[in-house]
Amino acid sequence: MRPPRLASVIERRLLVNYRVAPEAVAPLLPATLRPQLVRGHAVAGICLLRLGSVRPAWAPAAVGLRSENAAHRIAVEWDGPDGVETGVYIPRRDTASLVNRWAGGRVFPGEHGHADFEVHETPDTLRVAYATRDGRTRVDVTAEVTDRLQGSELFADLAEASAFFRTGSRGYSATRSGRHLDGMRLDTTAWHIEPGRITAASSSYFDAPDRFPPGSARLDSVLVMRDVPVRWEPLAAMATCGTAVGAP
Length: 248
Hints:
This protein has helices spanning 22-25, 98-103, 158-167, and strands spanning 6-20, 34-35, 37-38, 41-56, 65-80, 83-95, 113-121, 125-132, 138-145, 170-173, 180-187, 194-203, 217-225, 228-239. With 248 residues, the protein is mainly beta. It has one domain (6-239): Acetoacetate decarboxylase-like (Beta Barrel). Strands 1, 2, 3, 4, 5, 6, 7, 8, 9, 10, 11, 12, 13 and 14 form a 14-stranded mixed beta sheet that branches. The longest helix has 10 residues, at 158-167. It is globular and about 45 Å long. Residues 242-246 have low confidence and may be disordered.
């Protein structure tokens, strides 16, 4: 049975971006994928996402669910039938939602781990922290919304950053079997992103020296999305031709 299309509202999305040495990222990817480079750097990060009104695309918003979620992401490219294609590889997804944990990988693409979240938000400041129940992943990020993007070595300005993430709308998630990647595409006609500034950040994934030697993964920027209606389109699974290593 084909997985259903889903609709939701991105109530809050923090895109915490790292610029990473390509040689540090390449071993973490399945053989079918390679790092997508921006100004000589690989682009990786953490998506801290609160979704509201999640439901089948045909259902009214009033019946939708709400959940806190997180995904570690690496921007990738691969050779498709018509040339080079781009998207993101997701070595791990986590959620506070029992429904997402049960349905991910069964009803819709994307297996999820179990995590506990702590969130504090004002119109100008956002803090999102979470720890997974298996003890393997911890993240704590505080960011301020600003009027322009500053200090990024990946993106010259907000418009460039926005275009990069909008075109990387296809996400392929690792699965327990290691034989394929689950695929999902984000679609919206209301794309809007705001610049931010990181005031504090820690990540057990990016701070691990056995995965990223000192200096090979550096915080670059943070972007914020709020109150954006979206649809999620299931994609055909992608063969891995081998199992990725180094998942959080």
